[in-house]
Amino acid sequence: MSQTAHRLDRVLGSLPDRYAGPGGAVAVLRDGRVVASRCWGWADAEKRLPFTERTPFLVCSITKQFTCALLLDLFPDPSVLDEEIRRLMPDLAGEAPGILDLCHNQSGLRDYWAQAMLCGAPVEGHFGPEEARWLIGRTRSLHFRPGTRFSYVNQNFRLLSEIIERRTGRGFAALLRERILDRAGMPRAGLNPDTSAVRDGTVGYEGSLAGGFRVAENHIHWTGDAGLAASLEDMIGWERFIDATRDEADGLYNRLSAPVAFRDGRTAAYGFGLGRGALLGRQVTAHGGGLRGWRSFRAHAAAERVSVVVLFNHMADPRAAAAELFGALLDLPADPAAAPVDATLAGCYLEPETGLATRVEAMPDGRLRLGFSGGAEILSACVEGGAASAASRLFREGDAVILERAGDNLRTRLEPRGGEPGSGFEGRFRCEELAAELTIAASGGALYGAFSGRLGEGMMQPLLPFAQDMLLLPCPRALDFAPPGDWTLRALRDAAGEVAEIRVGCWLARGLPFRRIAAG
User: Fold this and answer.
1) Going along 425-506, which residue ranges are E strands?
2) Which of 74, 165, 386, 433 is most deeply buried (CB count within 10 A of its CB)?
3) How would DSSP label each residue in 40-104?
């Protein structure tokens, strides 16, 4: 056995312990052939149903590339569908996004699962087609001009699937089967729009070894945004199809993975439901998928003709596992140890364009933790200067602290913020666009807040002080796997110093005005 084969075998053997959970499946391909694959554990641990290569699995947002593949197959020039978007959002003021803006997550729409939490949706509540149509139909504004920025928006791809159905007069599931899945050698894959149950009984789990595993409860209805169920065998079929068509100039995956740009000409890192970036220094097209109890990741390195697929029916990190397998096959070194960075970058800031609270914290190992886009990003020293993660770079320019997020097409001067939030937050505030309310109440000297609306009454959460006129409302769990994180609540005061409006936002949904309707 070669050194590379031994390393790959060692990584494969370690996965069930290092990414412990009820079950999993992985595959590594090179030149269109399976180099190694492994399945372990249980698709249903209670019923002792084994996890096999044919186990149906919710691949979640990996669906997005298949939706775009169907779009391109049916409409070689997708822009002919641009007029359809406004029909689904008749109250949208100003410029509407185009079809390609949806495909590239450059639409400017606010994510509907994040907004659902502002409408009082219970974390494990029902979110079906009626709720989706209602929330999308209420859209009146965007949080940036289409084509100028990137923001991850799930309904972009739901809209694509609905537009495809409208223009063809046929169901999305049938078209996907006929034109994409059958061609790609994915016989068991298909649409599984109801996330509360998976055909053949596969179950997803929350929890950990330390705290125990429990069945994850989900009640979201999915379509082109995340509705595909596929087995490892199906996903191997997709990777083989990609390799088999690699030399076709107009091949489907070549079109999906072609370079895309923002309207200012800058290269975009996301397009047609695929991320474009580096994995251990090699260029890949990739995407992950996530829902409570379901984690997946696939990546393809065209130059090396290598693909990796990871499926976990629990909450371990599939991208990290994929990186280990990828590195083992190509005999790549692990990422170098992090070097210390300038700790004086730490502080509390306002990012002025998005209106989001931005926290930078020094870590004991010399790195920085950035809180901006929902989850925490860990920043290490970079050769360009300052500190960087895969998504962000933070550095000084004179006295200013600059945040660059090339993938978002954002370069911004952070505004330092200090002090205490101040008083006068108590009361009720309403967002007309969402027909939603924010209630802030004091209890025993502490402030609490919750959202409510058509989808329910949200749980009262403790509000965390951030800076002058700024509070944070934690949202660590939501309908979707990727929650809003901390909602920024930024007070706008009138001439008398009273809180007249609160601007609410997270990276997924920014700048929503909630105006006071009642005092505390």
Assistant:
1) 427-431, 436-443, 446-453, 456-457, 461-462, 464-467, 470-475, 485-493, 499-506
2) 386
3) EEEEETTTTEE--TT---B-GGGHHHHHHHHHHHH-SSGGGGTHHHHHH-TT--SPPPPHHHHHT
**In the chain, what are the domain boundaries?**
3-76+171-330, 343-416, 427-519
Check residue 219 and report its DSSP letter. Answer: -
CA-nearest of 422, 520, 418 to 469 is: 422
For residue 27, which of 50, 6, 8, 7 has the smallest C-alpha distance?
8
**Do 281 and 332 form a contact (C-beta atoms < 8 A)?**
yes
Rounded (10°) angle between helices 129-137 and 155-168: 100
pLDDT the model gives residue 353? 98
State the average pLDDT over residues 62-80: 99
Q: Over range 316-327, report the average pLDDT.
A: 98
What pTM did the predictor assign?
0.96
Identical topology for domains 3-76+171-330 and 427-519: no
**What residue ranges in 163-225 does DSSP mark as E strands?**
190-191, 205-208, 212-215
| CATH number for the domain whose boundaries are 343-416 | 2.40.128.50
Q: What pLDDT was estimated at residue 481?
A: 85
Q: Per residue in 212-240, pLDDT tens? A: 999 999 999 999 999 999 999 999 999 99
* Fold annotation for 3-76+171-330: Beta-lactamase (3.40.710)
Residues that are catalytic: 61, 64
**What is the pLDDT averaged over residues 269-276?**
99
Nearest CA to 160 out of 113, 108, 218, 97 is that of 97
Rounded Cα–Cα distance for residues 275 and 104 (Å): 9
Q: How confident is the model at residue 383 (pLDDT cuts 50, 70, 90)?
A: confident
One-letter identity of residue 327? G
